[in-house]
Amino acid sequence: MHRQKTRGVRLGVQRSLRGTCAAICCGLLACIQARADDFGNAYVGANFGRALSSYNTGYIDQQYVSEAMEFGDSLDVTSRSVHRFDDVWWGDAGYYFTPYVGLEAAFLHLGEVRYKTAGVINTGGTDDATATSSEVTSRGPALSLLGRLPLTDALEADLRLGDYIGKTVFYSSIDLLGQSSVVTSSRTTSSLLAGVGAAYSFAGHWSVRLDYLRVNRTGNSATGGRFTVNLASAGLSLTF
Description:
Layout: H1 2-37, E1 42-53, H2 58-70, E2 74-83, E3 85-96, E4 101-123, E5 126-150, E6 155-176, E7 179-202, E8 206-220, E9 225-239
Antiparallel strand pairs: 1-3, 1-9, 2-4, 3-4, 4-5, 5-6, 6-7, 7-8, 8-9
């Protein structure tokens, strides 16, 4: 008899705990849903920041050396300078189909890589000074899938994964014996775009953003080389 009463008490306690846990879970889900619903479905924004490129300048050196060899000459590079950091900007517009999943279209300008060299080219037994100036730029549209996690009434974290259709332009100027020649080439390629960010809403429909984006191996090995760009940006968005 005593065992039956004890078992009944235990069952009652377990049921009570289960009911309490279920109520807590429902309350948390309702709270998250309410916070998610506070965010707008559509938005437009503008972002500015700095980017670091992994561009390998050895690609350019090899092109110059190969070109000199085609004419039976030799080229020795004596000094180099490269600028891989540059200002970037991007604009975006997006729409959330659910409180947590959306789609974003953007246009990115990933800045420039600037590279200068000085060297000596031997033409028929005569050494002549030569200098080159090269620039590599990448810009284009991107389409990304978004995931959003509301953290508070005003703060959210998000992830993006998409495709960057970038047009990479290679420009080079070669100075030799007082004469200058210019070479340009461009190619549009598809690259993986991934990012993580956070946004804070204020004044109803405005948000300030911080984002980190990575564009993986944009460019083309035949027209300037492939490279990766990592950028950090701050921006302002309007939701409606």
